Amino acid sequence: MTLTPPAAGVRTLADPDTPFAVVDVHKALRNIERLARRADRLGVALRPHVKTAKSLDVAALMHDGTHCPVTVSTLAEAEAFADGGYTDITYAVGIARHKMPRVTALLRRGVTLRVLLDSVEQAVFVADAARETGLAVPAQIEIDCDGHRGGLGPDAPDLVRAGRILHDAGCLDGVLTHAGESYFAHSPKERRLAAENERDTAVAAAGTLRAAGLPVRTVSVGSTPTAHAAEDLTGVTELRAGNYVFFDLVMAGLGVCGIDDLALSVVVTVIGHRPEYGWILTDGGWMAMSRDRGTAAQPRDQGYGLVTDLEGNVLPGLVMSAASQEHGTLTARDGADLPDLPIGTRLRILPNHACATAAQHRGYHVVDSAWPTGPAPVVQADWKRITGW
Amino acid sequence: MTLTPPAAGVRTLADPDTPFAVVDVHKALRNIERLARRADRLGVALRPHVKTAKSLDVAALMHDGTHCPVTVSTLAEAEAFADGGYTDITYAVGIARHKMPRVTALLRRGVTLRVLLDSVEQAVFVADAARETGLAVPAQIEIDCDGHRGGLGPDAPDLVRAGRILHDAGCLDGVLTHAGESYFAHSPKERRLAAENERDTAVAAAGTLRAAGLPVRTVSVGSTPTAHAAEDLTGVTELRAGNYVFFDLVMAGLGVCGIDDLALSVVVTVIGHRPEYGWILTDGGWMAMSRDRGTAAQPRDQGYGLVTDLEGNVLPGLVMSAASQEHGTLTARDGADLPDLPIGTRLRILPNHACATAAQHRGYHVVDSAWPTGPAPVVQADWKRITGW
């Protein structure tokens, strides 16, 4: 193909001040389509978790104008997605009583906002709020499938107790589980087993409730690793995943994706050299990348990130090995020579953990690698992130 | 003293939705006064680094209306402080050529914005910018005193070369060094030696330039640990430090401050219990605390933070041991019993690294522990943070 230089007025990745976050929309779309096809094949609805990108524009890539069901990690996301026309939202963090007025305000706006809980005490205050407001507050009971975080066991006595309290107030929607330990499942087989366990646990919990005469509508499972490994989701009604839109080095390290699938990166500028130490210094430190070092727990530690040129081609053997607030240090490894990257060179850093790196930025500059535009890709759009709680 | 309940309309830390960041202005002022007294005694000007709080309100605590000299880590901070009336600003990250238009725009506004560099190449483009714009761009040469990050050695040939290029363009202001390795100096003696080395290196670099006939105005040193350890700063003109305003568990672990000096915390709410694992779950995860685990490298690993009640009293033996995006896990250690903290209980978490935790928030709710107002301290003010680059 013939490359033409960008027209006057067109911005490229060489233009904005560094550091800044970039989304490659081509890779994001490819990742989205991959999981959408899987969900279709498995016969379950997909409810993307929007906590990674926190962007209405990224979420819009997932559907064709009919706002899809989404999962959120904060009420600020729920409110922003409601403002954007989304009406089917699950807030997948255990509910606190003081948050109920924000929940019921969204329900009054016609948004089906589902809340999550794993105790009788929470069920009581959710049911109370429903009675006080006259609004059915759809609630899901969190089920623990792998000892990762919150949740009740699938046959815990409190499951039926909480379910009955919710049901009596017209609030019981279903059960939800998250195979958080699958982020440490390093083989396809381990991830398949994690997906089977996630499904089995959720279906068993739904069975416990149904056996007690309590109707269960939603049986929700998901994590990015298990969503890409599940082979049979019989009994499950919906699949959640979030990180998969961008993917990251942790997911690549597990084998859930390849390095070439990573849709989020951070553009930095070389600001110095310390040849005596083998260091190249950049203006992108942990403020731009986050302090997340997720790959430190993997067989291949990728430091604070891998390095690509501005077009996205990986520079082999180069790693961002250290970070202070606004400084990054790049070093060679695996016997590679330190490349000649003069002061002023712009690079992209692929992050350990997309959720954490994205959170360091107020928005994204968007490029589309399906239409290569030369060494400095053209910025096609600027997308904002939702911040705060 | 007699406590009266807050008047109607008065907000307390029990009111805002969690998680949120809190600054105790009493502790911040105490920390500020402590270092101000030291700088006075040492006979040097203090140039606080505002990268920790990134707040005009916090900076205002440091002076009495006459805007003090400040250090910044981004041009966004420089621009915001210029908007706030500050006219003496050092941008202490190696300058990139593409940032020069923002630098010269600030100089044109009458702000003395000093830039930092450690190469002949940077000196050339700074001198070029000065000639092209007719503006003297005050520049400091970064000196490496401990192999921490950037900088030239105090007798590097490039020091005089860069100095001469700057001087010939009317830009040479001085030298700057930062004892970054002092964050790993665990005894008062090590920190005193680090401070002496920082001073000696900076003064030697100034001497190298002066011996070459190049005038040096500013000899700038500083880091929070060395600023609190220096006993003699002969030859130094100014002292920089930033973290000291809030302090954090890393600084307390080194012994630079006590736990009671920590002025920044994050308020979270208990949202669940897993008694079988000994876990209390909160709604404050790494999004609220950051992924910084600075104390992991110290003798006493404080997890993601220590836990206090809403008034600020440390709950002994309790630590935030794990974090996901919006979940925190509290566990007991040192043989302590897990306290009874019902769902809905609000707690404060003291962070590893104030710079990183503060960066996760858009602003601070401010309390004043000099005027105790009961178990839920009154919110005296809301202060905004500067974001982006």
TrEMBL record, chains A, B:
Per its UniProt entry, which superkingdom is the organism in? Answer: Bacteria
Please provide the record's keywords in A-Z order. Answer: Lyase
According to the UniProt entry, its GO molecular function terms are: D-serine ammonia-lyase activity
Gene Ontology terms: biological process: D-serine catabolic process
Q: Which SUPFAM superfamilies match?
A: PLP-binding barrel
Q: Which residues form the D-serine dehydratase-like domain?
A: 263-368
**Similarity annotation:** Belongs to the DSD1 family.
Its name, as the record gives it, is: Alanine racemase
